[in-house]
């Protein structure tokens, strides 16, 4: 938070649920989105972009649901600069306490010629007309010049001036393809400020992609040059290489606020739990050396560093782990740990569970602690994820048997319990896991495409649990599943079944064949 009257307040526009969700593998269901929105509120972001309402009925419903629960932040929906898109965005956000319509059109020569097939004058007129149209519906309208960093200066100035005159309260300058470099991007913001006469009537925003690894640097250069709002995502997830990472831009402004003479309104102590929540709902992990939220971000391995930090943390630490909500001395959890310590750790890891669910989880934790000496955060996250997902188990694994070797074709026999009825199937394939998935699909009569499959040892050691994650596709619908076991085949079967249980739930669970 700003501690100096002259500090500029930078607004944080979070697009984890829109641009972030658009990235491969980050699809979230409604429950996941509501949980992320709850975290974003606690983090005190200024704007939550809930989705792209016209993209599907599911997107429309989730933006509506987010709009219904968020209290302090503005809730935005993205829409193309077209009346039917704007109407749909308005339908999605109108129930919010602070609704925002975020509309856009591309302004670069390449996008106008090849994608829009429109002349610059037509793009200008449409941008202005659609901002006016949106303003008739909603008092808070943001306009984005898609691919602005590759657009021509005079046209940028003309469009920015025109949309502000038509009522846009925020004008966003995206580096859509991640092409900009900091000096140039900062100069673009300076030039817009200098050449658009009515710029003082709107907030200037930036939205950077990370194709060259420069999204955060570009956003910060823009802040230095006078941008008021930064668009970003938790853990930097987003299209292709991702978006500006919220935690990096926020902690840079916070740690170097004297340099920037600017800060955000973010409660930085909620950063770690929000980051873990996004990892857990998307299954998209952050690398160990990721700034701020990576596993090693605050780990001092070298003896000389450890010695210095013990004598005075400032020797090697420019910010404290506590400032992002990461306790310095984490208690090791094991079979003697109490429910209170366990519940605290769940909170730190971003889980928000009802008391009954915590009780259920605590029993599972005790059971695991009996088998393992210490239970790590990754173990807890894996257990809690299952409980939080709350997938209705239309089908459960009753038992499985696989025969596999390098001389015969692997065969799997799967017996499932579907609504109390046991059903069994045998299938052969090129591997025991594939054979198991095949048997399950045949039993349930579903034809899905396995898009991704990952196996990870959750914690080191011979007693490590294994986590399997799958992403399956059924036409346009994508489902995630996660399974944990000390047996890799069982973990894989459980993950596959979890994904299919969500599919069955959506399809109104057909009866057993
Ligand atoms: O990258 C981009 O240009 C966008 C806009 C539509 C804001 O996501
Ligand atoms: Zn984007």
Looking at this protein, list some descriptive labels.
Double Stranded RNA Binding Domain, eight-stranded parallel beta barrel, TIM Barrel, 18 helices, 3 domains, 17 strands, three-stranded antiparallel beta sheet, 513 residues, alpha/beta, binds 3-methyl-2-oxobutanoic acid, binds zinc ion
How would you portray this structure in words?
This protein is of the alpha/beta class and 513 residues long. It has three domains: 8-282, Aldolase class I (TIM Barrel); 329-389; 395-506, Alpha-isopropylmalate synthase LeuA, regulatory domain (Double Stranded RNA Binding Domain, 2-Layer Sandwich), CATH 3.30.160. Helix content is 42%, strand content 21%. It contains 18 helices and 17 strands. The chain has helices at residues 16-20, 30-43, 57-69, 83-93, 109-116, 120-137, 153-165, 182-195, 215-224, 246-255, 257-260, 271-282, 303-311, 339-348, 355-371, 377-389, 432-444, 488-506, and strands at 8-14, 47-51, 74-80, 99-106, 141-146, 170-175, 203-208, 229-232, 262-264, 333-334, 374-375, 395-403, 411-418, 421-428, 449-457, 466-474, 477-485. The strands form four sheets. The protein has an eight-stranded parallel beta barrel with strand order 1-2-3-4-5-6-7-8, surrounded by eight helices. A three-stranded antiparallel sheet has the order 12-13-14. A three-stranded antiparallel sheet has the order 15-16-17. A hairpin with a 2-residue loop joins strand 13 and strand 14 (421-428). The mean pLDDT is 92. The site of zinc ion has 6 residues, from loops. 3-methyl-2-oxobutanoic acid is lined by residues 19, 104, 144, 146, 172, 174, 176, 207, 209.
């Amino acid at each position: 938070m700003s501690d100096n009257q002259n500090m500029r307040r930078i607004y944080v526009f979070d697009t984890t649920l829109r641009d972030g969700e658009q990235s491969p593998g980050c699809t979230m269901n409604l429950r996941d989105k509501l949980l992320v929105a709850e975290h974003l509120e606690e983090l005190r972001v200024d704007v939550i972009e809930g989705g792209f309402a016209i993209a599907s009925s599911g997107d429309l419903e989730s933006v509506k649901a987010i709009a219904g629960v968020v209290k302090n932040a503005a809730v935005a929906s993205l829409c193309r600069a077209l009346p039917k898109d704007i109407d749909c965005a308005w339908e999605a956000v109108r129930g919010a306490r602070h609704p925002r319509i975020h509309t856009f059109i591309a302004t670069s020569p390449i996008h106008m010629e090849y994608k829009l097939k429109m002349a610059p004058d037509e793009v200008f007129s449409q941008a202005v007309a659609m901002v006016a149209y949106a303003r008739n519906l909603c008092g808070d309208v943001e306009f984005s010049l898609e691919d602005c960093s590759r657009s021509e200066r005079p046209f940028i100035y003309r469009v920015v001036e025109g949309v502000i005159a038509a009522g846009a309260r925020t004008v966003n300058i995206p580096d859509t393809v991640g092409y900009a470099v900091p000096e140039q991007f900062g100069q673009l913001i300076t030039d817009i400020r200098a050449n658009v006469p009515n710029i003082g009537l709107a907030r200037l925003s930036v939205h950077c992609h990370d194709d060259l690894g420069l999204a955060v640097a570009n956003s910060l250069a823009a802040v230095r040059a006078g941008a008021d709002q930064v668009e970003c995502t938790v853990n930097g997830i987003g299209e292709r290489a991702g978006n500006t990472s919220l935690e990096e831009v926020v902690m840079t402004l916070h740690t170097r606020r004297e340099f920037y003479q600017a800060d955000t309104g973010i409660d930085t102590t909620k950063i770690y739990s929000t980051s873990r929540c996004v990892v857990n709902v998307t299954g998209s992990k952050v690398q160990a050396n990721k700034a701020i939220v990576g596993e090693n971000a605050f780990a001092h391995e070298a003896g000389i560093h450890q010695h210095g930090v013990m004598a005075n943390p400032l020797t090697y630490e420019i910010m404290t782990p506590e400032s992002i909500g990461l306790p310095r001395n984490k208690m090791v959890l094991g079979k003697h740990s109490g429910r209170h310590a366990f519940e605290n750790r769940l909170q730190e890891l971003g889980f928000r569970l009802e008391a009954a669910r915590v009780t259920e989880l605590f029993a599972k934790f005790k059971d695991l602690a009996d088998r393992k000496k210490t239970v790590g955060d990754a173990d807890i996250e894996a257990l809690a994820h299952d409980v939080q997902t709350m997938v209705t188990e239309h089908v459960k694994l009753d038992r499985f048997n696989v025969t596999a070797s390098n001389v015969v074709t692997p065969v799997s026999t799967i017996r499932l319990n579907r609504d109390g009825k046991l059903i069994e199937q045998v299938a052969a394939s090129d591997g025991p896991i594939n054979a198991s998935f095949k048997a399950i699909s045949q039993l349930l009569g579903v034809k899905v495409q396995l898009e991704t499959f990952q196996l990870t040892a959750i914690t080191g050691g011979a007693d490590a649990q294994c986590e399997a994650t799958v992403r399956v596709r059924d036409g346009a619908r994508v489902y995630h599943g996660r399974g944990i076991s000390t047996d890799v085949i069982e973990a894989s079967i459980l993950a596959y079944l979890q994904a299919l249980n969500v599919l069955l739930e959506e399809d109104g669970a057909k009866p057993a064949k």
